[in-house]
Amino acid sequence: MAETIGLYVHIPFCQKLCHYCDFLTFEDQDDVIPQYVDYLIKEMQLYQDRDYILDTIYFGGGTPSHLEADLMAKIMDGIYATFKVTDDCEVSIEMNPESVTEEKIKTYQAKGFNRFSMGVQSFDPKVLQIMGRLHSRQTAIDKFHLLRDLGCDNVSIDLMFNNPRQDMDILNRDIDQAIELNPNHISYYSLMIKDNTNFQRWLKAGRIKLFDEKTDRDMYHNIQDRLSQAGFNQYEISSFARDGKESRHNKKYWQLENYLGVGMGASSNIDLRRFTNTRRFKDYFAAIDQGQMPVESSEMMDLEEREKEFIMLNMRLRKGFDISVINQRFGIDFKEKYKDALEKHLKYKVIQIEGDHIYFTDYGLDVGNQFYLDIL
Ligand SMILES: C[S@@+](CC[C@H](N)C(=O)[O-])C[C@H]1O[C@@H](n2cnc3c(N)ncnc32)[C@H](O)[C@@H]1O
Ligand code: SF4
């Protein structure tokens, strides 16, 4: 039976690695890009008999816009030849400012891309420099305008806070600039120090310092207040959108809907099965050569695990979830089953229940971990 799902396509290439990033991506493997593109298409063909209908497609990375325009076109042609795609499918691409060109944008548009997500991180020269970004503040602004001039009416930008060298004044100037550009969507992430990154090494060596927890929260609240005053709705912990411009694809992750991930390291979630692809080129190519899915790990989750996951992910959304939905999906009486945890966190105003609806309060968004622990 035909099933409607989201498709994630992983592009593990960047021009240069940023000092904070541990995503599965390479700065010195451009030679394999054409082969990788061919194998992505072959991998998708392994799913051809599944009768999937795609209503969201998301190219993430790495930096999908690092690929030449004709290669992106080739992957999209491969998708259209392999899967059914709905007429109103949301098709997103992650880009970074230095690799965006007029030719690429025009190709993306011709191939059905309708949501453009550009990683900006900060508009401050010093912050950009320490992060290891290749673009200047002006390049980010110019490329944003280029997208608009070419008719892209759904543009998102990624920003980060709590970066070294970014105090509250710099953060405020970043927010001013973001509001002035007026994107349709902003993802605003708190810097995480990841293993085996330069930031981790520099932190250990005392070369950079992090802000304390209170400053991190002050910055977050400032972002929430200012973006909300500017008319952005916060619909998830890190996501702010103009009306109707929430990321449909990302909502599939948080609402535990089905998605297929192709490309190295990509994860899939289909019904109760979760599987993740290999992270090595050699293994990825070898599996596909043998007509096998390049899957490295796969688990069947039981309903109980899935139910906890449903709660954790849905609570990332500001509107939380409907209790009748979880009751129906997992055959439980949610209020009864989690009575103790709910009573405790209602008392401390971590969560709010209104009718059928449960969600984190503003305070709960900051201290949600304890709620998760009690649910688990
Ligand atoms: C795949 S990148 C986006 C596209 C492109 N590669 C770029 O960097 O412009 C996804 C986003 O994850 C965020 N990110 C990456 N590493 C992070 C970290 N250590 N802490 C917080 N956010 C991070 C950044 O905002 C980045 O834009
Ligand atoms: S943040 Fe983006 S450009 Fe920088 S290394 Fe990570 S994926 Fe590549």
UniProtKB/TrEMBL annotation:
Residue ranges occupied by any Radical SAM core domain in the UniProt entry: 1-230
Keyword Nucleotide-binding appears in the UniProt entry: no
Gene Ontology CC: cytoplasm
A GO biological-process term: porphyrin-containing compound biosynthetic process
CDD domains attached to this UniProt entry: Radical_SAM
Protein name (database record): Heme chaperone HemW
Pfam families: HemN_C, Radical_SAM
Function comment: Probably acts as a heme chaperone, transferring heme to an unknown acceptor. Binds one molecule of heme per monomer, possibly covalently. Binds 1 [4Fe-4S] cluster. The cluster is coordinated with 3 cysteines and an exchangeable S-adenosyl-L-methionine.
Chaperone in keyword set: yes
NCBIfam families in the record: hemN_rel
Similarity annotation: Belongs to the anaerobic coproporphyrinogen-III oxidase family. HemW subfamily.
Gene Ontology molecular function, alphabetical: 4 iron, 4 sulfur cluster binding; coproporphyrinogen oxidase activity; metal ion binding
Record keywords: 4Fe-4S, Chaperone, Cytoplasm, Heme, Iron, Iron-sulfur, Metal-binding, Oxidoreductase, S-adenosyl-L-methionine
Localization annotation: Cytoplasm
